[in-house]
Amino acid sequence: MKGLLTRCVTLALSLTVVLAGCGSNQDSSTDAGGASGGSEQSGTSKVSMVYWPGPESDAMQKVVDAYNSGQGKTDGVNVEMVLLSRDGTYEKEAAMMSSKSDEVDMYFTASYIIGQHAPSLDALDGKLNTDGYLKSSVDSLRMNNETLAIPMDVSNHFLLYRQDLIDQLLSDSAWKSKYGEVSQKVLGQTLEPKDPKDWTWDDFIAAAAFFSQEYNPDSPTKYGTALQMKNLIFNVMIWDDFLWSSGGSWLDESGKPQLNSDAAKKAMGIYSTIYNGKMTSPNSTVAEYPETQAALQSGNAAFAVQWGAAYDELNDPARSPNIAGKIAVAPIPGEHKTHVHALGVGLNKYAKNKEAALKWMNYLTTKDAMQIYADGGGIPPIAEVLNGLGEKKPVLPLIAEHVDKYGYSTPIIAETQPIMLKLAEDLSGAWAGKDDIGKALEKAQTDVTETLSK
Amino acid sequence: MVYSEKAAKWVLSFPLLLFWVVMVVFPAGYAIYLSLHDVSMGQGMSSFSGFGNYLEILGDADFWHSIGFTLEFALITTVLELVFGFLLALLFNRSFPGKRPLLSMVLLPIMVAPSLMGIMFRLILNENNGVATYFLSLLHIQINLFDPDLVVPLMIVLDIMQWVPFTFLIIYSGLQGVDPGLFEAASVDGASYWRTVLQIILPVIAPIFFIAAFLRGIDAFRTFDVIYVLTNGGPGNVTKTASIYIYEAAFKSGQIGQAASASVIVAVFLLLLIPFFVKRLSK
């Protein structure tokens, strides 16, 4: 009897443990990715859409709420956002995509990863009208002549500079004279200060030297600029501006790598000159967006190529008391090319509820939806919406203008992100003076060729 | 009755066995399966590739560089953490005023998540608003700890700062079990303190040292968080660990099959070390 009791108790305990492990947490569907995509209740189709948690999802939630309480009722569609972790969104999506899951109807994607997402996304051409978007943002989500996602949030770069310092440089004769002296020392030619809107790369280097105490002990800033040199794909995107605005690109017209081009050497040379010449902080080797913000906010740097989203923070007296109101925007020096990438949403090829998802996506392409998104803090790539918010957020019309006039997209292929990874690794050592520029570019050329051949 | 006892053993072991199968056997088996296939992110499984992924990884100079750096990092950090942990344990094995609060402070770093440790030092060492750089500048010291030549020592120092408390705890618990009479007897025989420590105490607690070395060595070999947050493996690939290599291969490049084969190679490499430690521990 005692033995039987012991066996019953142990069996019950074991089953408890097993069942506890297998139990599902039905309350966490929206936060943990357990969306019930495709279910229908009372004639309403439920569409589940993965989105990136953070300011973008806060803005999108307002659009979702507006749709669910308005147009969604007419469409018979109820949208639910699935928020995965900000750092792990793509990894979790990859797991879903690999298993051809129909758990969600729409995936969150971005220009730099859409090539890897492409096999799991339906082409949207002919199903949605993307004419209202800024062209380069749509292009950044197209691959093999197919639109694979609609852009929701656009990012680009500017040359952000201290207007007060540049104004003095353009008007103060002593500063002008010193500028000529410094440019002669650094570049071997005497340059006149120019408005940043007209800068060549030589002007960029000369100004960086002039505002560095290494060359000009009286400089109000310790360093001229702030380079972002950490081994990161987002820093490659910034270096790409130096490459594209020097007349280069990753691939030539036939799709072959051209990272050993003169333009690539020039772009590398600018980084090397600035870093080795102490015109940027030595800490730039681990710098990314926040470090560049800190360099400008602290008054340690006079200008930097930085993401557009930085502008508002730098001119906000609460967050940047030392420099608020003094930051202005200019195009990237040289050929003014600015990297454009978009965050977007695409239709899961294996979705259960494609028709309903397309109704929701159709709503997303409207100006009304994107207006709500922008009011909520997003940056939709629709010029009319961005221009309309200029008074509230002065950077938005500038984004619309620069993306339209100077925007370019890096090649959108399955290997886009792997190429960026290789470039970050191969080039960041040379940016920091650890590796020889020529050897680094040759290695990048070989690695990108190998990546493409796979 | 014999039958009942056997059955009870199985039933009692069942949760653990199930856990082992689900959390160890299946993932390991599946990783081996993936490593033999052409699997990429978003496209799933495409075809059986035999040892193709292994050959690809074994021929990749970056992989060997990451293994070399990881070995160097693990070896140096483990040795130094054992030394400092031992010295701290000797210190705390004595009575002195303020021992309890100091003990709590010494243990604090171990309670910080490694990724937070990385973020913390990213802020502390920032030239524009970092506390450390501010105080160094007051002393007119200008040093770039993220210089390619200094970044590896910096990563080692950070690892030591975080994990010395761990080796200290293990060794300290071992010291607590040492008969105080050993110290007294050695003292009576005229042995100095350090001779007693090195020739009497150290051999007694040697198994504890091996446990600490084993746990820290394995952990240091898996290092990811702090380095990923601070340098992302750079500049170039100077600080790229095997874990970062595998992570990038899987989730950035999307080459799941290759990442799985790199994981299997690393696991096999680590498995080769286990008999050495098991032999030492079972003595």
From TrEMBL, chain A:
Residues 27-48 are annotated as: Disordered. Residues 27-45 have a biased composition (Low complexity). Pfam families: SBP_bac_1. Residues 1-20 form the signal peptide. InterPro entries: Bact_solute-bd_prot1, SBP. Keywords: Signal, Transport. Belongs to the bacterial solute-binding protein 1 family. This is Extracellular solute-binding protein. It comes from Paenibacillus rhizophilus.
UniProtKB/TrEMBL annotation, chain B:
GO terms for cellular component: plasma membrane. It comes from the Bacteria. Residues 67-277 form the ABC transmembrane type-1 domain. The keyword Membrane applies. It is found in: Cell membrane. The chain crosses the membrane at residues 12-33, 63-90, 102-125, 154-173, 193-215, 259-278. Keywords: Cell membrane, Membrane, Transmembrane, Transmembrane helix, Transport. It is a multi-pass membrane protein. Belongs to the binding-protein-dependent transport system permease family. This is Sugar ABC transporter permease. It comes from Paenibacillus rhizophilus.
